[in-house]
Design brief:
alpha+beta, five-stranded antiparallel β-sheet, three-stranded mixed β-sheet, 5 helices, 10 strands, 17% strand, globular
Amino acid sequence: MHSSLGHRATRSPAAFTLIELLVVIAIIALLLGILLPSLGSARDTARQVVCSSNLKQMGVGTLTFSNDNDGAYCTGPFDNRMNSSYGPIDETGWLADMINGDYMIPGNHLCPTHPGKLTQNLMITGDSRFNDRPFAGADVSVEFRNDLLERGFNTNYAMSWYMAYSEMRTGGTDPKRINSVVGPLTDRFLSQAPTWKVPLFGDAAIESENLAGYEIIDGERFRTVKAISDGPVDFGFEDWGRQNYEDFGVAHGKASREVRVDDRNIDRSIGQFVFADGSVDAVRDANGDGVFSWTDERIPFSGSDAYPDSEFEDRVFGGILSSGRFRSPTVR
């Protein structure tokens, strides 16, 4: 007699069918498709926060320098050219102010999202500025330039024209020549314009490849960026209009479409700025043209003074500091 608990046939565990395996793979792919953009967005947001922190430190350093120097925000632009600045770049200009005064080291605080990592004013090859019309006795060797980089004399943020030059002199003809401008920004020029709208620094625009917008240093290729915004537009007869802000750029936030600006493809939509009150703000390129400005070709003489990007218009001042208005002297 056989026991009721006798021998039973064993069954091997059921294996996945091909259809079940494909379903699992499809679910994993779907989850990755959902999660990866979120992870990318989180990474971009984190980098934008780092950029904001960099600008905040630059603003704190600038305001501290101002407190220590009778209301002067800097000693001028970071520029080695004799007609455009007030001294050699290792002694004069905002980067020298920050480093030599132990306020901060700008080269240690580059915008992490920005593809450009070198200011155009350190270029020796191509569209060279470092050794173009330098001050007498200035060292313009490659070795000296590289030593400056080691010391942190570098940035991928653009300085505002206001901070470098304030406004035009009567009879001034060129916004980038020191004999045509009043001089570096001081407190006395900030009584009429809202300080929370007057930019000191912002994300820089990438230099055009047509101007050899890169430099090879120790075998590594660095894209270069604009050093300073262009200043007021000249309408003639000492009638200086709105600031041309095209040398500020967008470095954050994916744009809805990629646009071509000169020879550059722009696919970002947000630029960040630090203002004269020390605040930092992110401004969107609302009209999606890849720049923050207008030129006299875009706005008729009898037309509006407004920037085409309404968000920029509301957030960043672009007029005459001493009057708080937007053109001088004939149009107020």
